[in-house]
Amino acid sequence: MKKHSKKYTEALTKIDSEKTYSVDEAIKLCKEVKFGNFDETVDLAFRLGVDPRHADQMIRGAIALPAGTGKTVRVCVITQGDNVKKAEDAGADFVGGDDLVAKIAGGWLDFDRVIASPDMMGKLGRIGRVLGPRGLMPNPKLGTVTPNVANAVVEQKAGKVEYRTEKNGIIHVPVGKSSFSEADLKKNVDAMLNAVMKAKPVSAKGTYVKSLTISSTMGPGIKIDTLEAAQVASK
Fold this sequence. Notes:
Layout: H1 6-12, H2 23-32, E1 41-48, E2 60-64, E3 75-78, H3 83-90, E4 94-96, H4 98-105, E5 113-116, H5 128-131, H6 149-158, E6 160-164, E7 170-177, H7 182-198, E8 209-216, E9 222-223, H8 226-234
Parallel strand pairs: 3-4, 3-5
Antiparallel strand pairs: 1-7, 1-8, 2-6, 8-9
């Protein structure tokens, strides 16, 4: 049985494990029980009534959080021609074509996001095995394969996060930092709730959001009332 630290145990005493909190209450409590000596990431965890083994129930998308992520995102753009300067001007950290493909194929991974223009997709096959398992492979559905690389760079730098269902219908997604104000965390949480609610598959039967929790990196999970969360998302 895992033994928790004294600080974690103290944090647990402030949370009623039998209660589901409102979104506002859960955010406030999440900040109060934060005890790490660094700026912890705040995450939402959804348990959805979907079966990701079926393609029509795999929920995947990306959203620009209104208050950002609080994280510095290193963006790598694989493109050519006029898009090279456009990506550089937009603030991309690394821009190139065949040279970057070769560098990544050799094991270089000093970046957090990869954006590619459509004319380079044929060359990304050789690095699919490197990027794919790490969730870094550019994807049109996520806006990371696009002719407008400059706009994609701006979105990623501003705080665009990707989310997808894992096994058992679980989605883990960051919604900010513990240093964020309650108001900024609320903006990001509401935006994520909206995105996930709108992504409900037509084929999903029964209860869609089975459980929802919020937590900081070191802190315990705090259960959010799923009915109240659905109401927030519908506004």
